[in-house]
Amino acid sequence: MYSTRRHFLSTLGFALAHRPLNTFAADVPLIESIERVVVPAPKLPKGTWFHPRACMVGKKAFMTTQPIMGSDHFGHVHWTTSDDLGKTWSEFKPAPPLGWVPMADGNNEAVCDVTPEFHPKTSAVLALGHNVFYKDKGFYRDQPSRWPIYAVWRDGEWGPRKKLVWDDPRGSQIYSNNCGQRVALPDGDVLMSFTFGVKDKPRSVCGVLCSFDGKDLVIKKTGNELTNTKGRGLLEPSLTQFKGRYYLTIRAEDRRGYVAVSDDGLNYEQREWQWDDGEPLITNSTQQHWITHSDALFLVYTRRDPTNEKIIRWRAPLWVAQVDPKTLRLIRATERVVLPLIGDGVNGADMVAFMGNFGVCNASQEESWVTDGSWCPKTNTGELHLARVKWSRPNTLAI
């Protein structure tokens, strides 16, 4: 009996001594701190920089961004890199394949909503956005059919501008992965999602599986259709993978956001975003994106708050909260501000710069980034923001 007890205590001591650090740190918040940085950017003759999104190519950060001159009126996509984890950035250069192309009718086809992501299998950056059409005075509402546009960057050089082809009549007016996060699979295939629709009807969302060989992106399969009948329907889906399952977050126009989960990245079950107490997340037609840590899943979003009640669509500040992957609910006690509201969102809302067109990047095992270009429509000014989300435990998903 004594021998058995001594063996038990000895074994327990060994187990405690070799217990994973994550267990001891279970009560320590995973987000240790959030630091906001303004990225120095070249002056523009009109407007400001918008749509900044980054990815890591080894130890080098690669970012795309573009000017915004007015509502949905974007200039040539530019690119820049950083070798010191975002402390300094190289010259902002136009991405040759992602500019304006004159059309036969005298209008122009441009590219916007670009998300660059590193593709490990081919060591290439796949920059994927979609086309947009401009008349002489800018964006016009009666847009022709629209589709994804992509280009590949590798070793400092850009490949040609290409269209991602989807011959499905359900996307005759638009199909797009604009602003969306994607998942590169070990075999080189790429999982993403489309918002799609026909003219004058609400859009739907589906999962999409593509092959990618470092040059050409080709659709292999699509999944079930997710729907919403309010306004323009479901927009700007964004995808992540966490512990073997796939998660979509989706913008909508019914003062809600939506989340969907899948075992294969193609077939999803959908529900509205809620807090852990069952209350809905009140947001308004603004995209959400994921921060994915090896130990936990987080959502970055905008929402209604007493401090921003007069700001259009409550587009500042940006918030982050941890997601319970079992219930698909946000854990309210974990909510923090990622990028703060600058100004007075009640008495001076017309002078507050909007946020909400942002990107997320796992920059290292110690920190993830949220990049956003703020824009105040009244003054046509803004800044490039980088929020450093610093972790209390290493994020082993970072390459």
How is this structure best described in words?
The termini are far apart. The protein has a single domain, classed as Neuraminidase (6 Propeller), CATH 2.120.10. It has helices at residues 2-17, 21-24; strands at 31-39, 48-57, 60-70, 73-74, 78-82, 93-94, 101-102, 108-119, 124-135, 138-139, 148-154, 157-158, 162-163, 174-176, 183-184, 190-197, 204-212, 217-222, 235-242, 245-251, 257-262, 269-272, 274-275, 289-292, 297-301, 318-324, 329-330, 336-339, 358-362, 367-373, 384-391. Strands 7, 8, 9, 10, 11, 12 and 13 form a 7-stranded antiparallel beta sheet that branches. A hairpin with a 6-residue loop joins strand 21 (257-262) and strand 22. The radius of gyration is 22 Å and the shape is globular. Residues 1-25 have low confidence and may be disordered. By secondary structure, the chain is mainly beta. The chain is built from 2 helices and 31 strands. It is 5% helix and 44% strand.
Q: What is the CATH topology classification name?
A: Neuraminidase
Number of structural domains? 1
Helix tally? 2
The CATH architecture category equals: 6 Propeller
